[in-house]
UniProtKB/TrEMBL annotation:
It comes from the Bacteria. It comes from Bacteroides cellulosilyticus. Belongs to the SusD family. PROSITE patterns: PROKAR_LIPOPROTEIN. It is found in: Cell outer membrane. This is SusD family protein.
Length: 504
């Protein structure tokens, strides 16, 4: 019987006998059979859930690398003029199933490994019944049951998140909710069914069972508010392309976002740049869910080298540069000063402006504080990979409430202005014209989440690719085939006998 490619059961669930810390770095792994055979112990189950976060990271060239490359399909970044740079295929909206194969193979395996691990944990973790004869015993039993529910909810969160990435990148995908199905051939299931039968139900369960303060106490594990942030993002996407469910789902996204705003007690971190400082990443601040990169714990990022220019004193890889045309539209202020590097020291001891640099592009500086502000000597760096922030919630409410009703309410206007105020821009948006406000909010999402893997998905759900990628879209594979999907890996297509997305 054919098997679903790239899914590996043996590395999906983590367990260690070390002390129970609450970071994302389990040191060893057990198989599915071993997990199902162990005596239930909440600390071991929690560590098993922690393994899902390392699966999401998936190595130096995993999530952090592949999602940044995917986001290069948008308009914020450009590639280095290095010879034979295959990233250009993605930038020009002509993704290649062969030349870009590492992007598809790695991301496909990345998310399916998380799903397989989550399926095992969900199916193999029974919630203990409430027991005890005294009030104290019953209370203790209830607390234990709640912890079990919460850790299963973490697995549901991770399964939903992984499916959410897969449907946005690849369209119709297999419907797999238990481990026995995961190793067998499965047909592709319609995007709408994946949302309605897996993603949304998982997140509703996660919202009900996750605590308001995450298990770790910060963003390395999801809280109820992180689950609601993801759910609101899901509803927002369902409202747009490809499902186009419109106002009803914009209203759902606004409702969930407003719940977070009114009841979470969260707030924006006062200084934008503090969000990426290594010394502050474990504070319970604006980050709702993130990958916490660590060299010492072998879950490093390569953000420093990837974003350093080639003629920088530390000799960068120049994987990504800032798009100077987009930078020119970016409003002046403290946020822009933090996000961009427009001059830098070279190995010769001189300082060069970006226009006169070797490659002639400005740099994105957001991910360069991971060695306490000093350029790294090594490709391996610490730091944080943000997935959801409270700023996301504010801007989603502003956008969704307006699109649902055609009206700009006071809360929506305040959400946008709070983001702009922190950014240090000279002029705040004051319009209550629905169309003008929508344009301002959409632009602000781009500025706020520069190089955070969100821009491409925003352009797609709002069908704005042709507007913001006007140089490449008219002659693109995506226009020719009337979709915004990437190719499913060729190995998977051959194994399962599927037809790939049109054009690949």
């Amino acid at each position: 019987m054919k098997k679903l490619a790239y899914i590996t059961l043996g590395c999906c669930i983590a367990l260690t006998t070390a002390c129970v810390d609450l970071d994302q770095y389990p040191k060893s792994f057990i198989t599915e059979e071993e997990y199902n055979g162990i005596e239930q112990d909440i600390s071991k189950v929690e560590l098993a859930a922690t393994g899902l976060y390392k699966n999401l990271w998936n190595g130096n060239y995993g999530f952090c690398c592949r999602m940044m490359r995917i986001d290069c399909a948008a308009d914020q970044m450009v590639s280095s003029p290095k010879p034979n740079n295959v990233l250009d295929y993605i930038i020009q909206l002509n993704p290649s199933i062969s030349s870009n194969t590492a992007d598809w193979d790695t991301s496909w395996a990345n998310f399916w490994n998380v799903i397989t691990g989550a399926n095992t944990l969900i199916a193999g973790t029974p919630i203990p019944e409430i027991s005890g004869t005294t009030a104290a015993e019953k209370e203790a039993s209830e607390k234990t049951a709640k912890r079990y529910k919460a850790v299963v909810a973490e697995a549901r969160f991770m399964r939903a998140l992984s499916y959410f990435y897969l449907v946005r990148m690849y369209g119709d995908i297999p419907y797999v909710t238990n481990s026995s199905e995961a190793i067998e051939y499965q047909p592709r299931t319609a995007v709408a069914d994946i949302y309605n039968k897996i993603i949304v139900p998982d997140l509703i369960e996660a919202c009900a069972s996750l605590p308001t303060v995450s298990r770790s106490g910060f963003s390395s594990t999801p809280s109820q508010w992180a689950a609601k942030a993801l759910l609101s993002d899901v509803y927002m996407t369902m409202a747009g392309w490809p499902l186009k469910l419109g106002k009803e789902y914009y209203a759902k996204a606004a409702e969930v976002s407003l719940d977070i705003i009114e009841h979470s007690g969260l707030s924006l971190t006062p200084v934008y740049g503090d969000l990426w400082k290594e010394a502050k990443k474990e504070e319970a601040n604006e980050h709702l869910f993130a990958i916490h990169n660590s060299v010492a714990n072998k879950v490093a990022s390569q953000y420093g080298k990837s974003f350093y220019p080639r003629d920088y004193v530390k000799a960068g890889w120049a994987d990504y540069y800032a798009n100077p045309d987009y930078m020119a539209t970016y409003p002046e202020g403290a946020r822009k000063e933090f996000n961009y590097m427009t001059e830098w020291p070279t190995a010769t001891g001189t300082t060069v402006k970006w226009q006169d640099s070797q490659d002639g592009y400005p740099c994105i500086a957001k991910y360069q504080d991971y060695n306490q502000g000093v350029a790294g000597n090594s490709a391996q760096s610490n730091g944080i990979t943000p997935i959801y922030r409270y700023a996301d919630v504010l801007l989603r409410y502003a956008e969704a409430s307006n699109l649902a009703t055609g009206n700009v309410n006071a809360t929506a206007l305040k959400c946008l202005q709070d983001i702009q105020t922190r950014a240090g821009v000279s002029t705040l948006t004051t319009t209550t014209n629905s169309e003008e406000f929508d344009k301002a909010v959409f632009a602000e999402r781009g500025y706020e989440f520069l190089a955070e893997y969100k821009r491409w998905f925003d352009l797609v759900r709002r069908e704005k690719v042709s507007e913001f990628k006007s140089k490449y879209y008219p002659s693109s594979l995506m226009k020719a085939n009337s979709h915004y999907y990437f190719p499913i890996p060729s190995t998977q297509i051959k194994l399962a006998g599927w037809t790939n997305n049109a054009g690949y």
